[in-house]
């Protein structure tokens, strides 16, 4: 392929960093690239994410790709709607960044050190319900905006802390502001947090093969596939906040063959904000089924809870 690959990207610092990573990998492999900025409704609106809905950051980029304005689209995987777009192919899931959520707190404090009554900013119902479930008296405040806007609320003293994706801070070179990377035992990240989705048109097989061979990471792809399958199954069954994290380990068996195993945990909050957890382990070849198994366990636990004792 000797044409220049046009890579569609949002204009935010996070998006530019993500698309540059993809461009750099392609350039290193000997291909010419060009970044093309596409504005999205999510960038133009300051309304809470819970009101403007999923897909606000990704739909304009997907349209530009489907229309042929660009050849490649780079998304934060967790921002993509779970329904596949039949016009597009998920050509690559590059090696995932650290998926944990991160606390940025005043005076270097950790989550456990924040006194009762501390104001913690997040616009995410998933983060809010897991913070409240700690039982340490934290007061969750809704916030939005880019990384700098959110962190300024801590520097200005308006909030005691904010919770952000560690991957977002890593990508904009701000890891030093983190006062604690949150243990997934307490705070499960959003499904696919820290992963990128690199898409091309479904009929553009040359670009599809190129992206796959240059930057697909099967372990990241499988982990994220399990988490997203869990999310999709839960979306069908309830509208509650969802967290999930899968990991892939490679164990040589007795014959020296490498078995790739996937373990994952999931969490969902009930209407009255109790957390339900479930977990599963199995072969990576069944990644999506494993995700659906966790979702089924969570829906069963929720049904049992709602039907009450003795029924
Ligand atoms: N919801 C917005 C969003 N989409 C992707 C990231 C960070 C990078 C990632 O998780 O891949 C963020 C910011 C955040 O949640 O703090």
UniProtKB/TrEMBL annotation:
<dbReference type="InterPro" id="IPR036803">
    <property type="entry name" value="Porphobilinogen_deaminase_C_sf"/>
</dbReference>
<keyword id="KW-0808">Transferase</keyword>
<dbReference type="InterPro" id="IPR000860">
    <property type="entry name" value="HemC"/>
</dbReference>
<dbReference type="InterPro" id="IPR022419">
    <property type="entry name" value="Porphobilin_deaminase_cofac_BS"/>
</dbReference>
<protein>
    <recommendedName>
        <fullName>Porphobilinogen deaminase</fullName>
        <ecNumber>2.5.1.61</ecNumber>
    </recommendedName>
</protein>
<dbReference type="InterPro" id="IPR022417">
    <property type="entry name" value="Porphobilin_deaminase_N"/>
</dbReference>
<keyword id="KW-0627">Porphyrin biosynthesis</keyword>
<comment type="subunit">
    <text>Monomer.</text>
</comment>
<feature type="modified residue" description="S-(dipyrrolylmethanemethyl)cysteine">
    <location>
        <position position="238"/>
    </location>
</feature>
<feature type="domain" description="Porphobilinogen deaminase N-terminal">
    <location>
        <begin position="5"/>
        <end position="207"/>
    </location>
</feature>
<dbReference type="GO" id="GO:0006782">
    <property type="term" value="P:protoporphyrinogen IX biosynthetic process"/>
</dbReference>
<dbReference type="GO" id="GO:0004418">
    <property type="term" value="F:hydroxymethylbilane synthase activity"/>
</dbReference>
<feature type="domain" description="Porphobilinogen deaminase C-terminal">
    <location>
        <begin position="223"/>
        <end position="299"/>
    </location>
</feature>
<dbReference type="Pfam" id="PF03900">
    <property type="entry name" value="Porphobil_deamC"/>
</dbReference>
<dbReference type="Pfam" id="PF01379">
    <property type="entry name" value="Porphobil_deam"/>
</dbReference>
<dbReference type="GO" id="GO:0005737">
    <property type="term" value="C:cytoplasm"/>
</dbReference>
<dbReference type="InterPro" id="IPR022418">
    <property type="entry name" value="Porphobilinogen_deaminase_C"/>
</dbReference>
<comment type="similarity">
    <text>Belongs to the HMBS family.</text>
</comment>
<comment type="function">
    <text>Tetrapolymerization of the monopyrrole PBG into the hydroxymethylbilane pre-uroporphyrinogen in several discrete steps.</text>
</comment>
């Amino acid at each position: 392929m000797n044409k220049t690959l046009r890579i569609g990207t949002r204009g935010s610092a996070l998006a530019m960093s993500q698309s540059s990573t993809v461009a750099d990998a392609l350039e290193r492999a000997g291909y010419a690239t060009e970044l093309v900025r596409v504005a999205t409704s999510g960038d133009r609106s300051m309304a809470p994410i819970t009101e403007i809905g999923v897909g606000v950051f990704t739909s304009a980029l997907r349209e530009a790709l489907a229309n042929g304005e660009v050849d490649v689209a780079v998304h934060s995987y967790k921002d993509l709607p779970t329904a596949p777009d039949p016009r597009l192919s998920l050509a690559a899931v590059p090696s995932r960044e650290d998926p944990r959520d991160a606390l940025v707190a005043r005076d270097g404090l950790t989550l456990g050190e924040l006194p009762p009554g501390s104001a913690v900013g997040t616009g995410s119902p998933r983060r809010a319900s897991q913070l409240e479930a700690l039982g340490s008296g934290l007061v969750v405040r809704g916030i939005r905006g880019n990384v700098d806007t959110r962190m300024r609320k801590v520097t200005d003293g308006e909030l005691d802390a904010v919770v952000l994706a560690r991957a977002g801070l890593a990508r904009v070179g701000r890891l030093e502001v983190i006062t604690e990377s949150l243990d997934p035992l307490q705070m499960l990240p959003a499904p696919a947090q820290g992963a990128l989705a690199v898409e091309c048109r479904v009929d553009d097989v040359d670009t599809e093969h190129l992206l796959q061979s240059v930057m697909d990471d099967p372990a990241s792809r499988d982990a994220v596939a399990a988490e997203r399958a869990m999310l999709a199954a839960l979306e069908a069954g309830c509208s509650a906040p969802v967290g999930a994290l899968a990991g892939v380990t490679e164990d040589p068996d007795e014959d020296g063959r490498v078995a790739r195993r996937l373990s994952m945990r999931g969490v969902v909050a009930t209407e009255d904000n109790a957390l339900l957890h479930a977990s599963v382990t199995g072969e990576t070849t069944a990644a999506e089924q494993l995700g659906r198994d966790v979702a089924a366990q969570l829906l069963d636990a929720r049904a049992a809870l709602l039907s009450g004792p003795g029924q």
